[in-house]
Give the backbone structure.
Amino acid sequence: MRSDRNLYSKSLIESQDEIAEMKRKFKIMNHQIEQLKEEIDAKDQAFVKEHIEHSKADSAHANPHPNPHPKNPKPQTLNSNPNPKP
């Protein structure tokens, strides 16, 4: 009887140690997960900010000088002559 009780007691202690170790690892993993989530959020915010800045820059380059004469949408080229000779 005594040997059985000692065996079960030893097994219980080993199991409790394993549980404590798993809990410790679980806490570490949870902490790492939270850090990664924060890192992802920060990178996502930076990405969105950069995307907005690029969009603004693209729209500024696409139309730097809006046509002041909306009735004449065709822009003149440098080689075009306003008074062509026939």
User: Anything to note?
Assistant: The radius of gyration is 36 Å.
